[in-house]
Amino acid sequence: MSAGGGKMRHAVIVAGPTASGKSALAMGLAARLGATVINADSMQVYRELRIVTARPSEADEAAVPHRLYGVRAAAEAGNAAWWRAAALAEMEACSGLPILCGGTGLYLSALVRGIADIPEPETWARAEARGLVDEIGVAALHARLMEADPVTAAGLRSTDGQRVARAWEVWRSTGRGLRNWQSDATPPSDWRFSVVLLDPPRDGLREAIAHRFNAMLEAGALDEVRDLLALRLDPGLPLMRALGVPELAAYLRDEIDLAAAVARANLATGQFIKRQATWFRGQKLADVSRVHTIHARIAGLAQFSEREWGGLLNFIQHDG
Length: 320
Hints:
Elements lengths: L8 E7 L6 H12 L2 E4 L18 H6 L2 E2 L12 H14 L4 E5 L2 H9 L9 H14 L1 H11 L1 H5 L6 H14 L3 H5 L8 E8 L3 H18 L1 H10 L14 H8 L5 H24 L9 E4 L11 H14 L1
Parallel strand pairs: 1-4, 1-5, 2-3, 2-4, 5-6
Helix pairs in contact: 3-4, 5-6, 5-8, 6-8, 10-13, 11-12, 12-13
């Protein structure tokens, strides 16, 4: 029961690493269940890069209802708090089952666990954090954070400059650690979640990455990135760091050749997928509801037998 005494509503999360086939699976479920697919990918919320971010095609969006895809301009940085509020609003508006589809673990965690109301860090604290990253390096700042706020630091990689700097500025500005703030988060009381997790073998994903990036180039990825660069946006904006964008931008600036750009983009994507898979394998969403894990890449829905569809649908409908 919800906090207000009403019946809890049910939503499905289709999660997993990049190129694992989440979108295809979510569309197949939506078609069978009369559901709506809601984007949970931090890059697919932006409208400028449909091809590079592997956003669903116009035909896909016409086949089943899709929400929160291409709804934000690249110049307007999104974040977990904005996405969570938008996703909950779309879930409430659904007449049927909402299916949240994406690989952004931070967004999904914010949805199911809630998000803390962390005060905006003081300007001086933010400047100090960025200055220390430049002056002493991320690893050294992480070491300082480990002394000041060991609980938060223990959950951060010593190479992740953005998150280490964020944790430092919050601690310096508020006198309270980021993880401590996050413990105040409250999950939505009227929703329960079932998680369908795609966890395919790494070798298959590496092949899929290379194939998909070549397909993106053939579909016009270079033109998309060229148009994005023409907007002369702040290079720190999220979409400017999307997988493939820095590498293709370097090629368009004649800094590297196309073969090197493709190789670097595939390497960066492979490293990103490894981090995603590690996060999801930790089952950080498992305490919210049951998890149905599929150890395969969904290259096409035809690979699913009726028995497999039946098992998956039974899992979802049993939870609902």
